[in-house]
Structure formats: C-alpha cells, structure tokens
Amino acid sequence: MNDKKITKRKEDFSQWYLDVVSKAELSDYGAVKGTMVIRPYGYAIWEIEQQILDKKFKETGVVNAYFPLFIPERLINKEKNHVEGFSPEVAVVTHAGGKKLDEKIVVRPTSETIIYESFSKWVHSYRDLPLLINQWANVVRWELKTKPFIRTTEFLWQEGHTVHETIEGAEERTLQMLNVYKDFSENYMAIPTIIGKKTEAEKFAGALNTYSVEAMMQDGKALQYATSHNLGQNFSKPFDVKYLDKENKEQYGWQTSWGISTRSIGALIMVHSDDKGLVLPPKMAPTQITITTISVKENKKEIFDTTDLIYKKLIEENIRVQTDKRDLTPGEKFFEWERKGIPIRIDIGAEEIKNKEVVFVNRIDGSKTKVSFDQIPTKAKEMLDQIQNNLYQNALKNQEGKIKEVKNWNELVDEVSKGNFVLEYFCCKKDIEKQINEDTGITVRCIKQTDGKTKGICIKTGKETTNEVYFAKSY
Amino acid sequence: MNDKKITKRKEDFSQWYLDVVSKAELSDYGAVKGTMVIRPYGYAIWEIEQQILDKKFKETGVVNAYFPLFIPERLINKEKNHVEGFSPEVAVVTHAGGKKLDEKIVVRPTSETIIYESFSKWVHSYRDLPLLINQWANVVRWELKTKPFIRTTEFLWQEGHTVHETIEGAEERTLQMLNVYKDFSENYMAIPTIIGKKTEAEKFAGALNTYSVEAMMQDGKALQYATSHNLGQNFSKPFDVKYLDKENKEQYGWQTSWGISTRSIGALIMVHSDDKGLVLPPKMAPTQITITTISVKENKKEIFDTTDLIYKKLIEENIRVQTDKRDLTPGEKFFEWERKGIPIRIDIGAEEIKNKEVVFVNRIDGSKTKVSFDQIPTKAKEMLDQIQNNLYQNALKNQEGKIKEVKNWNELVDEVSKGNFVLEYFCCKKDIEKQINEDTGITVRCIKQTDGKTKGICIKTGKETTNEVYFAKSY
User: Fold this and answer.
1) Chain A: residue nearest B43 by CA?
2) Chain B neighbours among A 185-204 (CB < 8 Å)?
3) What is the mean pLDDT of residues A368-379?
4) Which one of A63, A190, A271, B350 is CB 3.0 to 4.6 Å from A391, fit for a cystine?
C-alpha cells in the first residue's frame, strides 16, 4: 500500500523530502491546513530528543514548568518589537463558552510575555536569581507555506526562560544553551553545525542578541533549528521583572530565552537520508536494530527461538532492538526497514542457524558482514558507533566542500545559487541585508564566532568590517 | 513573603486547599481567567506521574504520537452526542494570520474527532489492529467555576485511543486501562479508589460505556480524575474507521479512549495534606528527603561535608534528595519543607556530628527518630516505605468510615450532606438521576463492579435493580 517510489534527490529535492517523510511514516497532514500529525515513528524520535535535552538542561540547573497556551492581547502588546514581529502570524480566539470574549486571546506563538508576567511575581530578591525555567509545549504560528517538521502552523518545542542579576550572567547563559544545542546536534544528531550571532535584520523580535544553530542540508540550503536569545532588559522593563540587589536597591533583571523545535527532526531527515529513504544516526533511532527472520520453513521454531535469544542479548546491552517475524517475503521486510532508516538489520534464517552466524546489513552503505553468534553484541555496538561516526563525517565533508570564498558579489550570488554557503565579510547593515534578500533570496545565516578584531572588506559595500558571515539560501 | 497562615480544614476546606497549593508553590493563576501556571514544584509531580504512566502504557503495547491542537468545526460536528456534550465549553479561533478564517477552528477539548480522522487513513486491514495510540497534550474546556488543578480552562493530560476488531477487544482494553489507573492511584499516589461504570446520565458524550476512577477527598466529596471509555462503533461509523477482516469483508472498528489529567494532582493534594500544608506520598514526591543544616557556627565545614556525604549515599540508593545549607534559622527551613510536604527531613548540626547520628523528622506524624550515620540509607528507605504505606492506610480508613448504607432517601440526602458517600441500589434512570442532581446537588459517582446478578431495591423508586451505586457530592 505504501509502495510508490521515492523521488530521487537530484530530480526534485523537495519532493524527495516529502516522500521520505511519508514512506517512513513520520508524519501526516492535519485537518486544518498547515498542521501536522506526528505519527508514532516520528514522535519516538522527538521523545529521544526530549530525553537527551531535558537531562542536559537539568544538569545546568534548569527546572520545568508549564504556562498557559492563551495570552491576553494586552500582554502580547507590551513589548513593541515583539508584537510587531509576531502579530502577522498569530491565531486569535474570539469566542469561548458560547460567548464573544471581552478581550481577544492569542494562542501562544512563543511565551515570553505570558511567562514574564509570572516572573514579575516570582522574582523579588537577588536570592531568587538566577531563575532557570523551561517548558515543553506546543506553539502556533500561522504560516502560509508549510512543510512537515520544517514549517508547520503548530509545532512542538521547548522554550527556556531565565533571569539573571547582570548582563554578563545573561550572555553567559545564552551561550551556554547555544552550546548545549551544538553538542546535541553534533554528538547525537550527527549534524555538524554552524553557530553564531544573528544580524540585526534576522534577530528575534525583542532580543538584544540572537544566536542560532544552523546546518547545511544536502541541497546546500541552510536550516536554522535552534536559537538562543540574550533579551537584555527589553522584557524585564515592560513586564516589571525586578529584584532587590544586595544593597537593597531595585534592579531590572537580565533575561534570556532559548528553544529547539520539531524542526530539528526535519534537519535530521534532510542531512542524512538517501534515495532509498530515511537514514537515522543510531543515537536518534527509535529502533537501532531489526532482527529479521528469513526463509522460515520447517525449522521455524529454531529460527524464532534464536531470534528471541539474540533480541534478549541486545536488549541487555541497552540497544533499542525489535524483531520482525512476520510472514512476508524477505524483500518486503528489507524494503520496509530500509525506508524507515533502521541503522542495522540482522538477517536470520536456515543457513544462519546452520553456520551459527548471522548477517549484519548496514543501512548507510548496504554492506553485509557475517558475524558469529557469540560476537553479536560486541559487533552490534561497534557497528552502531561506526555508523554514528560515519554519518557525522559524511555530513561534515558535504558541508565543508560547500562553504566557498569568493572574489566579488556576482560570484557570491552565483555560488549560493549553485547550492553553496559563502563565508565572507559583510557590513551587516539592516537595510542593505533586506535589499539583498529581496533581490536575490539570499540570507545571512549568522556571524562567524571570531575574536571580533580581525577586519575585512564587506563583499557588498567595500567598507571595512569585523563581521565575517555565512550567506546562504535557507528553509 | 509567603508567611500567611494556612486556613484550617475544619474552618474552610476550600480555602485550605487554595492555601496549601499556594504555600507549596504548586501553581499560580494565569493571565486569562481560569487558566493556571503550573509552577516547577507542581510540574515536577506531573513529570513523575508522566514517567510512571508512560512506562505502564508502553508495557501494554501503546505508542505515543501527537495530533493537532486545532479541530475544524466540521469534524467536531460529526458525532452528534459528542458535539452536544462539548460545544458549550469550546474555545473558537476565528482569525489567524491577520485574516478572518473561512471555517471556524475549535481548540481541542478532547481529540476523538481529530484523531479518528487520522485513524481512518491508517487502518486498512485486521493486520493493523489493535491500533494502540496515546498522546500527552494540553486541552481546553471553557469552565466558569475554576480551581487550581481541579478544574481549569486549560489542562494537561494524556489521552489514549485504540481500535480493535471486536467489541470484546474494546471492552477488554477499556477495563485494562481503568486498572492501570487504579494501580497507579493506589500504589503510587497512595489513594484508595472506587472504580466502576458511569450511569447513562454521567457517561462521556459519545461513549457506549464510561468507567471512572473516583476517590474520596478529606471533606467526603468525590473527585473523578481518570476515565476509560468503550466507544463501541459510535465514532468509527461517522469517521469511517474501517478494516478488511480475515474474510476480506469490510468492518467498522471498535474503539476506546482513556485519560488522566493534572486533576489527579488535585486529588493527591486533597487526600493527603494537613493543616500544616502539603503532604506527598514518597513515590510522588519530587524531593523525598531534605537534608537541613542547623546551628552552623564554627564547625561549618564539617557539617557541610557530612551533609554532602549523606546526600551522596542517599543518591546512590536512588532516593530523590536535596540539601538545604542556606543561612536561615532552623525554624524558617523546617517551616518551608513542612509546607512543601517533603516526606523526611534530616537535620544535621554540631551535636549530630559529635554523636555521629542525625534526626529523621517524619512529615506525616512529626515524629523524630535518631539514626546513626551508618544506618542512614537503610532507615531512609524503610521510613519512605512506611510513610507511603501509612498514607494509603490513613486514606483508606477515612474512606471506609465514610461510605454509609441507609434506610431511605431522606437518610441518604442527610448522610451525603454530612460529607459521606452512600452505597445503595439505584435504578439509574437518566431523568430520575438528573432530577436528583437538580434538587439536591447529589451525583451518582459510578456503579459498583459486581457480578451484575444480585438484585436490590432502588433507594429512590423502590423498584428492583442490579445497580448498586455510590452517591456523593462531587468536585
């Protein structure tokens, strides 16, 4: 029933992505345009992401809480840049309980305003700081062009919100969380990242500074999937987040917010998958190994028993493993697990029982390795590590080969249009950047993290600047 | 700052509840009327509940997924009883992205309709069944009278949704999940439960049968905090959830749905807490033990080092423990942990160091036990078990003492108004039950699970019936 072919990346990258998502049963379209159903297999990836990140957040002292979905209009209007940034894309509740509401309610597009209303009640003294809160929640942004995981009207994310005594404390936390995302991306998602400060044109509505985690997709376009904002006192002032310092003087807090969303699953798919379907790095794979019975005839019991035994041994090693004993042809089974990106498939049939060895099939290169029964757990762990590492290296090679330097503006436009990133100096003037984007569709992803002293010549204006930036097309 | 006294239960039970919630910093009011902020301490309880239940669900084969918050009006209108039940309390989005929407969108009050729209696409063959799906999500029901955790406009819950080949399969799953909730209530929340079928008047809008988990609060009122519904084919028909059976004949699926919400935290609070504040059973306590330093003067280092050592030993035993080394008076510290319901407080100061023994303070009876250093982990585990067990026994005693049998209707009204449950035979006629509720405020909580054969005389009508039911006032 799910046997339509997957479009090749070279033919139509966008259609290939939709095919991979659909064939791996990661998501479905919701009934309201632009919404998404996250199917069990896709949601299992999100659960792994939640577990890893939640632990990392808590290790830095963050605790979870939950704030309301509904924001009264008056609250969202309190911070001028913020409301301007978000008002075009909010969903508004006007009726409830059978009546027209006196005040319109906004469905949260992000929760700074509703959370800082609470923070103003919770923060009294320097002793209450730093306040380190996170929530896992759904948010709604009314988008016109949507794509599963990448851009949906409703999405799942976590949003962290902190208050500090000093601007340095806030900046430190902003960078700390940026690095948590970078570590997660590289060491779990096997995605090499580019991190750096956003330009004025691209920063979060209401932030002092925004830092982002960007990655290069296989088509050479950039995908931003995590951000960390130093909000300064832009929200603490209108929201009255104040504390008494050690000298008993009233001060406004310094704040941060930071988030990663189900968009990251889109990146995971677009960085690693191939023309056969989904590819998942083992650390993010809900199932790392499928044990598949093949050519089951008269010795069914022995094959099934051995399958169960291997299953048990792998479970003991904390490997996420499943068995597939269904009465289907080997081809049907192989096809399914390939499309679902299970890192290793172990085949076991009559011949394997006879020779006391199984075949390990590696999803990323299709290689087959014979492994004797007693070596299975050891070899499984080795191969999973190797796949994790190879996926990262492949992605890094792809990315490094596609970050270009150029001589002039025309060359830059040419390279980006060919599916490359360009790393060059840029003045980062807001109006110039906006004009570039309008004329060419090119965006500045972020400013490279440097010592901030080395100067270069702006590729667009010829003026001297310290900002070295990544130009790219983006999702 | 948080030093207002807690109202006594006898004076005003409702105000007592609000005081306990506020003093323990479990929740705050949201900016939109009826919404709730779940503060970190309250949310930590919810996280424990999620972990326990999620594991139990998965052990029965259930997998998680996520479905959209937004339901188009046409979908919610598909099942007649369902829309009638929910339409008075839904919140409606009419505008989004700066435009008036062509079709109104309902913010999910529950997700049967939006989920079964997906199920109709996922279910094709008997091989796809049973389909066992759960989601953890927020839902919105516009309530006029609200109370933290007990009844809020938005709340968090899980909702399980399954499809089966037969009505027996659906009924079995309905009861299986009811028993998961019962087990969780009794063995983790230490709350004795009353479970049974709901009457026609009280069942879920759209269900064939509803079963509920009810518990008695300390004021003798009932609180329902989990339900399990056998939906029959009431939804599969309008939503076209069909499958081909083994004979290749098209059949409608048999469905269930079941859920538990943050309301359960309200029950947890109302069953165990006392006039000093929150009381938590150890299995649900985010912090099971606080080690509190007292009389820290010249031997500060020794006291702090010993505190750290004890902390480490308890962590190794998987006990959730925290230290309180703050420079506050012992009284201030004791007061805070008492209000927050930490099951055991361990005090350590100069004298304790000298005698190589600490004092264990038991939150539920205030008893103090001297424990030598080397006995700390063993005694800690023992006392936690003992507190868990005692809380259950206390609640059971309270409940059993307040379930009355009566001779006639007037006596029943009298007993219930005194804060008791009454267990009597009742005809369960819908109109009679509705009239009782209008006249007296009394509700039928559920029908006792019996062999269904024993007959008795309806306490209201004098007619013979097999339904033995629990009458009570309820939240």
Assistant:
1) A65
2) none
3) 96
4) A190
Domain B403-472 has CATH 3.30.110.30: yes
| B109 CA: distance to closest CA in chain A (Å) | 11
The whole-angstrom separation of Cα A156 and Cα A160 is 13
Per-residue model confidence as pLDDT tens digits over A387-429: 999 999 999 999 999 999 999 999 999 999 999 999 999 999 9
Give the integer Cα–Cα distance in Å for B275 and B63: 41
Label residue B105 left, alpha or beta by phi (over 0 means left) and psi (-120 to 50 means alpha): beta
Could you tell me if A138 lies within 8 Å of chain B, comparing CB atoms?
Answer: yes
Q: Where do the domains of chain B lie? A: 13-272, 287-382, 403-472
Question: How far is A353 from A336, CA to CA, in rounded Å?
Answer: 24
Distance from CA of A376 to the nearest CA of B (A): 26
Report the C-alpha dihedral over residues B407, B413, B415, B417, rounded to 10 degrees.
180
Note whether B13-272 and B403-472 share their fold. Answer: no
Each residue's pLDDT tens digit, B337-392: 999 999 999 999 999 999 999 999 999 999 999 999 999 999 999 999 999 999 99
The reply to whether B31 touches chain A by the CB within 8 Å rule is yes
Contact criterion met (CB < 8 Å) for A92 and B88: no
Flag if A72 and B37 touch (Cβ within 8 Å): no
DSSP single-letter state for residue B225: E
List the 34-93 stretch of A: residues with Cβ below 8 A of B: 35-40, 42-44, 46-47, 63-72, 75, 87-93
Query: Closest partner residue to B70 among A35, A44, A92, by Cβ?
Result: A35
DSSP conformation letters of B170-211: HHHHHHHHHHHHHHHHHHTS----EEEEPPTTTS-TT-SEEE
- ipTM value greater than 0.85: yes
Task: Give B145→chain A minimum CA distance, Å.
Answer: 12
Interface contact A38-B91, CB threshold 8 A: no
When the candidates are 3.40.50.800, 3.40.50.1820, 3.30.1330.10, 2.40.30.200, the CATH number that belongs to A287-383 is 3.40.50.800
- CATH superfamily, domain B13-272, is Bira Bifunctional Protein; Domain 2 (3.30.930.10)
Distance between B467 CA and the closest CA of chain A, angstroms:
35
Q: Of the CATH numbers 2.60.40.10, 3.90.226.10, 3.30.110.170, 3.40.50.800, which one belongs to the domain with range B287-382? A: 3.40.50.800
